[in-house]
Amino acid sequence: MGVAAHLGIDLANYDELIRQFIPHYELMLNAAAEAAGAGRGLLVDLGIGTGALLERCRARGRGRALVGIDTDEAMLRLARLRLGPAPKFVTGDFTRVALPRATAIVASLALHHVPTPRAKLALYRRCRGALAQGGRLVIADCCPATDVALARAQFAAWRAHMRLSFSASETERWFRRWRREDFYLPLATELALLIRAGFTADVVWRAGCFAVIAASA
After folding, report:
1. Any idea which fold 3-216 has?
2. Residue 113 — very low, low, confident or very high, per pLDDT cuts 50/70/90?
3. What is the rounded CA–CA span in Å between residue 53 and residue 51?
4. pLDDT at 1
5. Sign of dihedral through CA atoms 121, 123, 124, 126?
6. SS3 for 182?
7. pLDDT band at 2 (very low <50, low <70, confident <90, very high)
8. pLDDT for 23-37, tens place per residue?
9. In b/e form, how buried is each residue of 144-167, taking b as 16+ CB within 10 angstroms?
10. Distance set, CA 157 to CA 112, 181, 210 (Å)
11. Where are the domains of the chain?
12. In this structure, are residues 2 and 9 in contact, taking their beta carbons and an 8 Å threshold?
C-alpha cells in the first residue's frame, strides 16, 4: 500500500498533515539530522518519503553523497521536487534492496512498517553490515514505553495533539487506519535489538512515545 492509501490523504498535503499527525515533528527531525552528523561519506535514508529528513541532513553535511530509498514512486517524486537531482533515488523495499556501503543510515517514521521483531533484527543486521566502522544508524519513530500504563498515557498525549486539528471521531479513524500497517515496538525492545545486531545504542531525543535513537557501528 502506498503512503496516500495508508494515510488516507492527498500526498500534496503530506508535509502539512504530518505536522498535525506527529507531535514535535520538527524537533524530532532536527534531532535526527544532528545525530547523523556532518561527516563525509555516503548517507542513506530508508523510506525517504518527501525528503524532509534528508534535506536537513544535507544542510548539516554539505558535499555528502546521498541515497534515498522508498517503495512509493509518488513519494519519491515529491522528494525529487524538494531535493533536486543530486541525491540518488532508489525505488524499492529497504528491507530487501542491497544497501550500499555508508557512513550513516537514517530513517524517520518508516521502520514501524517492519512487522515483527525478527524482521527488524534482520534489518538492523543488514544496516550494521552496510555501515563503515564508526558509522551511525539514526532512527526517528514511535517507540512507546514498555509499561502498559505509561504507553497508554503516551498514546493519549498523541491523540490530544491530533485533537488540535481533528475531531475525536476523525482522530480515531486515523488510528484505526494506521493499525493495519503500523507496528510500534517499545523503546527498550528497539534498543535490545540494535545491541543484538552489533550496535551500541543511545536515545538522543524523546517526547512521549516518539524517540530518536543513535546507534553506532
Report:
1. Rossmann fold (3.40.50)
2. very high
3. 6
4. 47
5. positive
6. coil
7. low
8. 999 999 999 999 999
9. bbeeeeebeebbeebeebbeeebe
10. 19, 21, 11
11. 3-216
12. no
